[in-house]
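Hi there. Long-time user, first ticket. I'm pasting a complex I've been working with (about 661 residues overall). I'd like to know whether the download I got is complete or cut off, because the file seemed smaller than I expected. Thanks.
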Amino acid sequence: MARMMYREAVLSTIAEEMERDENVVVLGEDVVGGNGTAGGPEAIGGIWSTSTGLYGKFGADRVIDTPISESAIMGAAAGLALTGKRPVAELMFADFIGVSLDQIWNQLAKFRYMFGGKTKCPAVIRMAWGAGYNAAAQHSQAVHHILTGMPGLKVVMPSTPADVKGLLRTAIRDDDPVIFLEHKALYGVKGEVPDDKDFMIPFGHARLTRAGNDVTIVSTGLLLGFCEAVADKLAAEGIGCDVIDPRTTSPLDEEAILDSVEVTGRLVVVDETNPRCSLAGDICALVAEKAFASLKAPPLSVTPPHTPVPFARELETAYLPSIPKIEAAVRKVLSYR
Amino acid sequence: MQLSREALLRAYRQMKLIREFEERLHVDIQTGEIAGFTHLYCGQEAVAVGVCEHLSTDDKIVSTHRGHGHCLAKGCDVDGMMAEIWGSRDGLCKGKGGSMHIADVDKGMLGANGIVGAGAPIAVGAGIAAKIDGKGHVAITFSGDGACNQGTTFEAMNMAVVTKAACIFVFENNHYSEHTGFEYAVGTQKDIASRAEAFGMKIWRGDGTDFFSVFETMREVLDYVRVPGNGPAAVEFDTERFFGHFEGDPQRYRGPGELDRIRETRDCIKKFRASVTSAGLLTDADIDAVDADVMDAIENAVAKAKAAPRPKPEDVLEDVYISY
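Hi, the file is complete. Here it is re-exported in full:
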């Protein structure tokens, strides 16, 4: 095991996979940086430091610095994937799906089905998501509910460095398009990561991060840590929480959630997407449809309000689900009856 | 450079095959038996064939919503295509794609595309792959005078230049973006190639109603782009669309006598026949024999498409990787 940051897990996994398979190529804005300036190439190595050193190691053919042209980046990833390469394209901020969605949604996601199953499309689209940096309305959003709603995409959201390692490796070796969502507030978080260069985590397998029999909490990303803090606090009072990190929202490990709710009878879903047509609403509906008989209280969701992400510290804090809000929700489902 | 008799016959057959494929669809669609939206390529055959006759299966093309001609020219199976358009299970995409989404990746045909302007970025990716592989293969995107106004096309042109992708932008100017005239929709009121030139590409122009003009122009373009390190190029072919934007389009935007005039004076197939017979390269009998062969092939394709098994309801869930 090695101890490393979430961002280091991203970088080292890409480097290992590039080493292993010469068809793996990286592209995106500033994944190198500096090209053509007096300072020379690799002035930045990715704004998240997730491609640092790759250019020097693998060269310009495999580490492709692009102009600020998100549609062309996503489209190039599609074209590379259709012609034998395994592109790992960086979209920088998840919010930028807005300018590139056609290539993700109408192209990458649809090729296999629309072409009658005759083609592979092994592209990984990495993007940083989430609030917590006061980056305001266009650089802080959670968009996984939008992408999860698109047939043809696999949507992966690691919450720990080890999950980054295992899930990103699976994503790069997968033959279908994978959206890989990195929570920007977690890039600096450290954790133990297996050394095995074939360590992979299959998609659709949730992780139980806390175990208990009284309430099921489902969450991902930054908020997962908040939920764990709540579970730890309640454990001291003798209240047991199952905390489930789905790891991938498509495919979703429905079984893990339903099995847990069958024991606890109570569900709280905590998510950063806005409330309508959200991941939280989706999981609450899943449980209502498939585990109704087990429920002892109505499922509850804790989400931001239906607003853009605000800028000021006080406002962003008020926007995001907080530990007290999550705790209140858990106590509410416990006290229902 | 003089083409061999075999090459001339093959090129003519390809153009005629596209022509009759489309003319037959034009008739069959009116019976109501074929579902969906169909955009016919009639009139532009010299472009698809003049380009694709230079290509191997290792060269890639990305097509448009008006893609039947590109598919056939790139070698997609005529029976499989007809079956796809009829929505049958034997179709190239098992009835899941339809007219606007025919693809055959093994043939280097990376897909027709229902989104105008979406193909260019995909071709850039394929062109980067070709550059990385260094074997002199190319990726070609076909775009019309409509797609040339999409931001994706601009992004793709710049990115192709920046990355030195082995990519060719083939612009087919058929004078109409859907139902709106080129003179209105292209703000410069100039040709499209000059836009590509502004992005830093070497450009060519040719007569898209003349197979020989397209073929010879493409030879130069390909000689240039196949040289490693040269990067992308663009070429514009002035051409004509004999039918409407989609089947059923009343075409009220056409001028008086316009359709008759372009059919009479700008028909690439008539021009080809006149050119090769007057030069003594082929006889009318040679060409008539190809025509008869093509009519049989189309008749056969339609018969097979009509007789082919229909998709089953459970096929909806085939070729998906996650089911809920």
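A couple of notes from our side: The first helix of chain A runs from residue 6 to 20. The first strand of chain A starts at residue 2 and ends at 5.
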